[in-house]
Structure formats: C-alpha cells, structure tokens
C-alpha cells in the first residue's frame, strides 16, 4: 500500500470486508503491487496482473476485458489525489493501472486452472444476489474490542482454500528451487576444482619444459658441436641440442620438439597424428603443423610420405 505524504490529505476511514492483499492473492495467485488512493480505491499495474494471469499482450487483454472506466494512467491517478509518483523505475508516469473491478474482469477472462476456485466463488456471489437480493459474509468468531471498530468478517471458504493451496504450492516451489540452487553450487564447485587442477597441470608442464631447456643450454655450452657420431648414433639430447643451434626456438616449437625428438630417436620415424601431438603439447593442430613446418624448413626433419590414415611421416635429417 502506498501511504500519502505529510503534505497530502489524510484518507477517510476505510475498511475492506476482506483484506485486499489476500483477496487479490486468491484471485491472481500472486502478491501484486498496489496503489491505494485516499478514497480507498485500489489500483494495480496492469502489466503485473496480466503477467501473473498468463496474458501475453497486456494491451490487448485490457481492450478485450476491461472497460475504460476501470483503467487509468498512474500520473492521472496520483495527480487527482495530490499524491507523488511512487519511487522506483518500475513506477513510470505512463504506467497503465486497473482498479479492483478491472482486476476481477481479467481474472474472469483467464483460463488458468488456479483461477477456477475464485471464479466459482464470484459466480456463487452473483447467483446468491440474484436469488436472495444480497450476499452477506459471515461475521468472524473473534471481533475487535476497540470502540467503534468495524465488524470483522470471516474469509469465504473458497477464497481461504485458494490461499492455502497457493501457499502449499509456493512452499513446494521454494523447496525445489533451494534443491536446484544447492545442486548448481555443487556443480560450480566441481568445475572450479577441475579448472584449478588443469591450471596446476599446465604450470607443472611449463616448469618441466623450462628445466629441460635450461639443462640443454648447459649441455650446449659444455659439449662440442655434434660430429659425425650424430648421424650414426643420435640421442634425444644431441638431437635437441642440434635443433637449438639450427633455429631460434620459441616455446611452442620447443614443446613440439620435446615431444617428437624421443620418438624420432627411438623409433626412427614419427607417425603420430597431428591431433595426438596437439593433445600432448596443449597447442592447436594448426600451430603444431606450423612448428613442424619450421623444423622442416631448417633441415631438422624431413617428410617421408604418409600413413594409411593420412597422417604425415617424418624422419630425422642426418645431413
């Protein structure tokens, strides 16, 4: 409920036979924003009501179900009672509002099953008025004790049952949402642990490659350049040392070199698919191919045809 400011006229005494919040909750199945003017008229944002009732086009829903006298613009309603526009970006000056009767008309035009109990009660009220000339709410068992306090009425059975069903449903939805949130957090934690493990593995590989590079730098300084023995009895260390002298080795080229050199020395040729080398180095297939091309260009390796599945075959260049 929107309270008038201290510069606005105080509202006259007004008492709803049924609490308007409970009444609207039973009708729409949701707690809808409300603006209550000093004369006791309740106004509701049409977009809120249409959303809860399943109307996809609020403008069309108003034209189809709500006459003009039951809909208004927020600025007109507040201006007519010297009220200020409620705070918040959702309370725009041109916001379309409907009164309580307009809300009931939208509920009657709604096909959602949750609206059925309220619509049945409305039909019962109309039928009773037609038959008996009036419809009277039962007085509540407990009445206010303050002098002059208005009579308290019991909530109609259909309205009370609708509220109970809605609260039960909402509790179930809240429980399901809480379970989904817990499961989502668990998945997020697992993904975070996997990312940390992957990062640790990548760092370990980088450190290992750095240590190998440092050892080879020392070996290159301490040992003479490869002689004819390289052609006859190459080792992984001698091959890598020779390659480092032939070209300017980047980290990507060195990663590929460290993977293929042992294979070329031990097996005499390299028949591994490019995607296998890419998986071991963490590089893309395209980048692996570029590194192999650079090694060929500097006479480190040369091609010897291909395998049956189309993978290239490489051998050491011993010249």
TrEMBL record:
<feature type="domain" description="Bro-N">
    <location>
        <begin position="17"/>
        <end position="133"/>
    </location>
</feature>
<dbReference type="InterPro" id="IPR003497">
    <property type="entry name" value="BRO_N_domain"/>
</dbReference>
<dbReference type="Pfam" id="PF02498">
    <property type="entry name" value="Bro-N"/>
</dbReference>
<protein>
    <submittedName>
        <fullName>Bro-N domain-containing protein</fullName>
    </submittedName>
</protein>
């Amino acid at each position: 409920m929107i309270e008038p400011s201290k510069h606005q006229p105080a509202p006259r005494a007004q008492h709803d036979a049924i609490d308007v919040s409970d009444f609207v909750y039973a009708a729409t199945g949701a707690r809808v924003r409300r603006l209550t003017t000093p004369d006791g008229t309740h106004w509701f944002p049409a977009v809120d009501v249409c959303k809860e009732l399943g109307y996809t086009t609020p403008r069309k829903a108003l034209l189809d179900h709500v006459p003009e006298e039951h809909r208004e613009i927020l600025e007109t309603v507040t201006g007519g009672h010297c009220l200020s526009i409620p705070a918040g970006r959702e309370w725009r000056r041109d916001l379309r509002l409907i009164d309580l009767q307009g809300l009931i008309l939208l509920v009657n035009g709604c096909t959602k099953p949750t609206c059925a109990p309220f619509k049945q009660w409305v039909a019962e009220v109309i039928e009773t008025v037609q038959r008996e000339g009036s419809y009277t709410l039962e007085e509540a068992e407990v009445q206010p004790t303050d002098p002059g306090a208005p009579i308290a009425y019991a909530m109609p059975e259909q309205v009370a049952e609708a509220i109970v069903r809605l609260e039960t449903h909402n509790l179930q939805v809240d429980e399901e949402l809480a379970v989904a949130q817990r499961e989502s957090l668990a998945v997020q934690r697992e993904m975070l642990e996997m990312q940390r493990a992957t990062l640790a593995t990548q760092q370990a590989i980088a450190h290992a490659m750095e240590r190998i590079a440092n050892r080879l730098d020392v070996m290159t300084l301490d040992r003479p350049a490869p002689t004819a023995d390289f052609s006859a009895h190459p080792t992984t260390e001698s091959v890598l040392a020779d390659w480092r002298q032939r070209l300017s080795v980047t980290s990507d080229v060195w990663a590929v070199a460290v993977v293929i050199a042992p294979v070329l020395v031990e097996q005499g040729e390299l028949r591994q698919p490019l995607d296998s080398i890419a998986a071991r180095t963490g590089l893309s297939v395209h980048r692996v191919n570029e590194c192999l091309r650079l090694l060929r260009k500097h006479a480190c390796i040369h091609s010897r045809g291909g395998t049956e599945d189309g993978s290239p075959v490489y051998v050491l260049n011993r010249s």
